[in-house]
Design a protein that fits this description.
Elements lengths: L2 H16 L2 H31 L2 E6 L17 H6 L9 H20 L27 E6 L5 H4 L5 E5 L3 H6 L6 E5 L3 H28 L21 H43 L2 H5 L5 H34 L10 H28 L3 H20 L16 H14 L10 H24 L1 H4 L8 H10 L7 H18 L7 H13 L1 H10 L3 H4 L7 H28 L1 H7 L13 H29 L4 H15 L6 H18 L3 H22 L13 H23 L7
Parallel strand pairs: 1-2, 1-3
Antiparallel strand pairs: 3-4
Helix pairs in contact: 1-10, 2-10, 8-10, 8-11, 8-12, 8-13, 10-11, 10-14, 11-12, 11-13, 11-14, 13-14, 17-23, 18-23, 19-23, 21-22, 21-25, 21-26, 21-27, 23-24, 23-26, 24-25, 25-26, 25-27
């Protein structure tokens, strides 16, 4: 590739996009104006909504306690008793004692004659029933003569409070009465009901204290213990700050994803389908630039627009949030959190840019391109909304999911300090994103290399004809689309397999592999190809190839095992993450033949037929052998749904893929895979029984491990050279 030509195409496409005023408005003007205006409108609306008082309609108010001079807490009886004089002896000391004793007795007696406090006074609720006296204006009272809820349905009142006719009687007799609250299903009515519940709770507490006084019991008699909520003890301003920060932590990753996609959507349509409409695509294709250089130039332009769109929107929202949260302590985002968003916006924008470019190249017009690209929103939205679900956190599984892993990593980085940042997840999140972007970019390059895609005529979409075409015009080998569809089907079935219940892991594993791993490629090879045996690479190998398969396992297993052991020992936190989903060790103590079959032989047969058989054969129909081996190995590592197993699984997949392409048969890969699993099972059992300190552990000495690794590299180099020379057989 010639970078001067790529740069020239990039600058050309960038200049054309900057001339489009609609694009500039969407990327620059809209994000700068949108969030300040929207934030101001929302704040004004919220303030106006909260400041408006809720109207409470009360029916049966005559059955409520009335305001009396002896009503608590307004009644002056106990206070007057303390200032009264009691008869005493002429002695000064005796007179003082009798005064205080008489006042205490009179105060105690006055408590038995305190009346129940009223709920409302002069069409309003007393301020003592609110958390803050300034909130008393938030409720207004309308007294109603009828308990009919017609006034509530007609929105004359926001909620209706019905008082039982026996309320006061039951209260005085020590019984239990009831109040009924009716409200509509709108926000206005719900807010009023929430405010009234606070008032009723305070009033109920006052009534309880008066009843206990009548019985001669202390006010706290019915409270056996006190629950102190540490969060509620915080100042309201601090609670509001924490709530705002928690909301921003969830909203910012969502905006980062959606604006990255939106920023790549419109330039991709214009640079591909738009050029077809304007007739400039032919001029570009006949230039000295290669198709790869054209695609890379367009990709860099789309990537720049996607990243700038996301970052400008995030910057505008951060500035707006800082402005409106300036009065709240800890309300604004930290600068480091915004820097993380900027860093992770680049790989996310690259992924969406490559995907939109590949899809946009297939469209004939801008209108059709929008039809094709809009489903990307439907696929992206669930991946983003998954981060809002309770219990969803960054783990080895979610880090492999294209969009979800980045969003969860942003959330973690925005809420933790540098010393507690999840550094272990940077590589598991960013490396798969880079690989996804590379695959999408290769897809776009393949689209540009196909004349029938760039200059296709109008066609009619008919599902029935399309299905008939698939089954009637079957090819001898699977296509790339069929191979990718097979992998997506395997991933979906793997998720479904999580819900399978069984008392034994060995039985569940056997069912999953036979029903959900090997069945899809077998059926697809029989139904979609004319040569199912060759599609699955079921050729007879030679003895030399089988011997080499055994030799490769003996050479590759010690370095891989030593590498895994070293990583786990050097990073103790990695051991728990690596063992997630690894319930194998506790099942290996079952009968030996069952463990060997369920965890050794069955995975080797099923996974090899799927990945080194059907999927690798489909990828080789369009990609070069090395690219096909790399992609199939990555997909194989991705199937295990644990990012910290990716490196050893990827290395094993590369070895098995090279062995399959070189031999032209999947059987040597099955043999190697089975021996690898058997050695892994044996080492697990020996380690559990303490044999790791015996002479067998000498195999993992650093010197011997290095010798095994060098020997494996030599053998793989010889195999790779034969593959490069085209001496390998098609699997």
């Amino acid at each position: 590739m010639r970078w001067p030509i790529i740069r020239l195409i990039f600058l050309r496409e960038l200049r054309d996009q900057l001339r489009d005023r609609r694009t500039l408005f969407m990327i620059v003007v809209l994000p700068i104006m949108l969030y300040p205006v929207l934030g101001m409108a929302l704040v004004q609306f919220a303030l106006g909504f909260i400041d408006k008082p809720s109207i409470v309609g009360i029916s049966g108010s005559e059955y409520l306690p009335e305001l009396k001079a002896t009503a608590a807490p307004w009644g002056p009886g106990p206070l007057v008793a303390w200032f009264s004089d009691a008869p005493g002896s002429p002695s000064g000391i005796d007179l003082g004692l009798n005064r205080w004793g008489g006042a205490l007795s009179l105060s105690r007696a006055a408590e038995h004659f305190v009346d129940y406090p009223p709920l409302c006074i002069d069409s309003h609720f007393p301020s003592i029933y609110f958390e803050h006296p300034s909130e008393a204006h938030s409720l207004a009272i309308h007294f109603l003569h009828s308990p009919d809820r017609e006034v509530l349905d007609n929105k004359q009142v926001d909620l209706l409070l019905r008082v039982s006719p026996n309320f006061l009687k039951d209260l005085e007799e020590g019984g239990r009465s009831s109040l009924e609250i009716l409200y509509r299903r709108d926000e206005r009515s719900r807010l009023g009901a929430q405010r009234v519940r606070v008032v009723l709770a305070k009033w109920k507490q006052q009534l309880r204290e008066v009843r206990l006084r009548h019985k001669g019991l202390p006010a706290g008699f019915a409270e056996m213990f006190e629950v102190r909520d540490a969060e509620q003890l915080k100042p309201p301003q601090e609670l509001a700050s924490e709530g705002l920060l928690d909301m921003l932590v969830r909203v910012f990753p969502f905006l980062l994803v959606m604006w990255s996609l939106a920023g790549a959507l419109y330039p991709a349509v214009d640079l591909c389908a738009g050029e077809k409409e304007r007739g400039t695509m032919e001029t570009l294709l006949i230039s000295p630039a290669s198709r790869e250089e054209i695609v890379l130039g367009k990709f860099l332009t789309i990537w720049l627009f996607s990243a700038v769109t996301a970052l400008l929107n995030l910057g505008s929202m951060a500035a707006t949030t800082t402005f409106f949260s300036g009065m709240l302590s800890q309300g604004a985002l930290r600068l480091m959190a915004l820097l993380w968003c900027i860093l992770l916006a680049l790989p996310l924008a690259a992924f969406f840019s490559a995907t939109c470019l590949a899809v946009g190249a297939y469209a004939r017009s801008s209108k059709e391109g929008q039809y094709y690209l809009m489903p990307l929103f439907l696929v992206t939205m669930p991946l983003v909304f998954l981060t809002f679900a309770p219990g969803v956190e960054l783990n080895p599984f979610y880090s492999l999911v294209p969009v979800t892993g980045v969003a969860l990593l942003v959330q973690r980085l925005m809420t933790t300090s540098l010393d507690k940042a999840p550094w272990l997840y940077f590589v598991p999140v960013l490396v798969p994103m880079a690989l996804y972007s590379w695959l999408a970019l290769r897809w776009a390059i393949e689209q540009f290399k196909r004349e029938e895609v760039l200059f296709r005529e109008a066609e009619r979409i008919d599902i029935r004809l399309w299905v008939q075409h698939i089954f009637r015009q079957k090819g001898p080998m699977p296509s790339v689309g069929e191979a990718i569809f097979c992998f997506v089907l395997l991933i979906g079935l793997r998720w479904l397999a999580f819900s399978i219940g069984s008392s034994s892991l060995a039985v569940r594993t056997a069912v999953v592999y036979m029903a959900f791993v090997v069945a899809p490629p077998l059926f697809m090879a029989l139904l979609l190809t004319t040569r199912p045996g060759q599609s699955l690479a079921l050729e007879r190998p030679t003895l030399r190839q089988l011997f080499l398969a055994v030799l490769l396992v003996a050479l590759v297993f010690p370095p891989i095992a030593a590498f895994m052991d070293t990583i786990v020992r050097e990073i103790p936190a990695l051991k728990q993450l690596y063992n997630q989903g690894q319930a194998l060790a506790e099942e290996l103590h079952s009968p030996g033949w069952m463990s060997l079959f369920a965890f050794g032989l069955l995975p080797a047969i099923c996974e090899e037929l799927a990945f080194r058989g059907f999927i690798l054969s489909g990828l080789r129909s369009r990609f070069r052998p090395w690219n096909a081996i790399l992609i199939s190995s990555f997909l194989y590592a991705l199937l295990h749904l644990n990012v910290f197993q990716v490196l050893p699984t990827l290395a094993l997949g590369l070895v098995l893929g090279m062995l399959t392409v070189w031999s032209g048969s999947v059987i040597p890969a099955i043999v190697s895979h089975f021996l690898y699993n058997a050695l892994f099972i044996a080492m697990t059992l020996l380690t559990d029984q303490g044999y790791d300190k015996m002479p067998l552990a000498l195999l993992f000495h650093p010197v011997l491990t290095a010798i095994f690794a060098l020997a494996a590299i030599v053998v793989l180099y010889r195999i790779g050279s034969r593959i490069k020379q085209g001496r390998g057989t098609r699997g």
